[in-house]
């Protein structure tokens, strides 16, 4: 009986070691999944930042173009005012 108890004890020990190893594998898989999700998140954040920078550049260029148009229209308006003032007789 003593030998049987030792075998049972050894079997229980082996089972515990197997379960511990299985849990370690599952834990490592979950950690790897978490790392993968974190990496994807970082890539998405970088892409969003790149897109925002590109949008800012485009907005600045659009603003420059609009300012040029405003300046042009302002100068044309001044020319028209001058023409109107020249045509009106002074009272």
Question: Main attributes?
Answer:
91 residues, 1 helix, 95% helix, rod-shaped
Integer average pLDDT = 90
What level of helicity do the residues show? over 70%
Tell me the radius of gyration.
39 Å
Describe the largest sheet. Answer: none
Strand content: under 5%
**In whole angstroms, how far apart are the ends?**
132 Å
Q: Give the helices and strands as they follow along the chain.
A: H
Instruction: Indicate the structural class.
Output: mainly alpha
**Outline type:** rod-shaped
**Number of E strands:** 0
Q: What is the count of helical runs?
A: 1
Stretches where pLDDT falls below 50 for ≥5 residues?
none
Please provide a brief summary of the model:
Helices cover 95% and strands 0% of the residues. The chain is mostly helical and 91 residues long. The protein is rod-shaped.
């Amino acid at each position: 009986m003593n030998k049987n108890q030792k075998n049972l004890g050894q079997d229980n020990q082996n089972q515990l070691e197997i379960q511990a190893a299985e849990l370690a594998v599952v834990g490592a898989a979950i950690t790897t999944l978490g790392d993968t999700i974190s990496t994807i998140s970082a890539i998405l954040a970088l892409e969003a930042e790149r897109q925002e920078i590109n949008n800012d550049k485009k907005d600045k260029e659009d603003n420059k173009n609009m300012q040029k148009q405003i300046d042009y229209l302002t100068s044309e308006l001044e020319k028209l005012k001058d023409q109107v003032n020249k045509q009106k007789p002074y009272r």
